[in-house]
Amino acid sequence: MKTKEMVYAALFAALIAVLGMIPPIPLGFIPVPITAQTLGVMLAGGFLGKKTGAISLILFIVLVALGLPVLAGGNGGLAPLIGPTAGYIWSWPIAAFLIGWAAEKGWLSLKVWKLFLINIVFGVLLVSLIGAPVMALITQTPVWAGLIGSAAFLPGDVIKAIIAAVIIVQIKAISPIEEKVHGA
What beta strand segments (E) does 24-177 contain? Predict the structure, then answer.
């Protein structure tokens, strides 16, 4: 891994930590709050690409495990990684990897609407399809209840998917993916 990629991974881990400073919105019916951090997951995958995007989220999870208060609400440590939020958090590197993979595949013709769809499939649906069943398992509730409860995230996640797509397309020229595609 090149130094530049390590710096990008660290910067995006820091960005996701900063997004964690935005207060979470607790939902009374499920133990997982609404946060801004999934915006960072979508940005990392779409801007950095599959490898560096996934590494940035793995680094972020290491920071959480070390106890740094980088999750929304100032949380950190092992509890969030094994509690009701575990499936959501552990899905983030997978989501960033798949968003990056899809963005790289269509980079030369990447448009906002295409990246929005990529973000919806991998940054919203995949995260919910991993996070909700794990939350249900840990809280000993039916999986269908977890999936229905996670539907509360959809409006905000759709907005985050749009924001990430617009930002990435606007700064596409400085993305590390651009360098890979054009061999710079």
Answer: none
